[in-house]
Amino acid sequence: MTDASIRLNPADEANRRLLANVHPTDWENPVARGRYNLVVLGAGTAGLVAAAGAAGMGARVALVERHLMGGDCLNVGCVPSKAIIRSGNAAHAMTEAPRFGIRLSGEVEVDFAAIMARMRGVRAEISPNDSARRFTDHYGVDVFFGDARFTGRDRIGVAGQTLEFSKAVIATGARAAVPSVPGLAEAGFLTNHTVFDLTERPRRLAVIGGGPSGGELAQTFARLGTEVTVIEMTDRFLPREDADAADLLRESMHRDGVDIRMSTTLKGVERTASAKTLLLDGPDGETRLEIDEIFVGVGRTPNTEGLGLDTAGVAFDRTGVLVDDHLQTSNPRVYASGDVCLPAKFTHVADFASRAVLQNALFPGPKKKFSKINLAWATYTDPEIAHVGLTEHEARERGLEVETITVPMTDVDRALAEGDTGGFFKIHVHPKKGTIHGATFVCRRAGDLISEVTTAMHAGLTLGDMAAVIHPYPTVADAVRKAADQFNRRKLTPLTARILDRWFAWTR
């Protein structure tokens, strides 16, 4: 039987449906079937892709999960966050209606309990895709619930059984990192693992960390009526993003009422019967901030504890399991994938990495190199920020010749028509060849738009090649064509211009 102590809050119908799929209370672990081609530890995105892919090709596969199948993405990450972001954007759209000629009578009422109930319903609706029964019945995977631990270089113990393997994949993911701040634990705080349990909207919220998760949550809660303060210890908001993009988002969040305090350190937390008080040290010296809830979003810590990695001969450190460019660990039988080993902790990266692991672990011949991917990511704020490849600064650091072409959204007709001109498309290319080093979109649906550039980079297309791609008019994606046209026009050198001048004079 599985762990009956696992509970989801609140205990409503949606969460009961979710639990029935991702950790059924009546589940009986199968009897181990001798030696497995692949044993997968962790049933988040990385583990599910590895297990389904291997089983789909006919391999004997065991999948072990100690908590909830679907991992962070389904349960406490991508799915629930995007569901409530949609509600925040809907509330914001109502406040903007007058500038589009729409008049609303009365005030907009935010029903936070209903918003969170909808989120739980969406999560439950998606959960059959990641369910234990689907992986057992459809893929033929042996699904085990329990704590897994390596008991040798080619075996794993779980729930009183031993799983012998030819190859194994560690895909145990990561959890929210928690800073060591006096009084924080005693005062209580939220992470991505608990914030989606809320049923009442906090009146005042402090977000610790100015990264993607903190930015998304801060803006959403502000749009739902919460007073939000972001505390970031560095002088950069969204430090991994293009600086211009980060600045645009800061301005947008400021308009939403978010107070962003940069170069500010959380020194301690005090709790009273009615509030929590943050002790801050920033540009204005030491200050105190009274709030109701704290959300901690300062990064992720890999889940490596209790796995018996030393017994298996698998090297690891505080950054996670150590892998080579083929995602192989120091034990040749064992690979790793996803957040437990990769610095880029994104669902789609975990998916790609596990596809590479399947080829590298199960088949002879050429191995896929993780370093060869064109990594894209998106931050789902308003405006969205999406990026692929290198920034201009990173390209120059690598000694690459680079030219940056920028198309402001004020030059894009569809953006003008929709009133969404506070963004841009920026692409970094070789100044002569047009080889694409990287690109950034800042606009609504940027996460959808960046895939065009990602595809071009994967296919080895230049920016000049992209000028030949016909884009429907009017679309925001037309910004790509505009950038490509700018690049091609620069090929009109003085010599080329003189030759063309003479040609047209002769042909008149």
Mind explaining what this structure looks like?
The protein is α/β, with parallel strands linked by helices and 508 residues long. The chain has 17 helices and 23 strands. It has helices at 13-22, 45-56, 71-76, 78-96, 112-126, 132-137, 184-187, 212-223, 243-255, 309-312, 347-362, 392-397, 413-418, 446-459, 463-466, 478-489, 494-507; strands spanning 35-41, 61-65, 142-145, 148-152, 155-158, 161-170, 174-176, 204-208, 227-231, 259-261, 265-271, 276-282, 285-291, 293-296, 300-302, 316-317, 320-321, 334-336, 376-379, 384-389, 403-408, 424-429, 436-443. The strands form 6 sheets. Strands 1, 2, 3, 4, 5, 6 and 18 form a 7-stranded mixed sheet that branches. The protein has a 5-stranded antiparallel sheet with strand order 19-20-23-22-21, sandwiched between helices. Helix 2 links the parallel strand 1 and strand 2. Helix 1 runs parallel beside helix 5 (112-126) and helix 4 packs across helix 8 (212-223). 44% of the residues are buried.
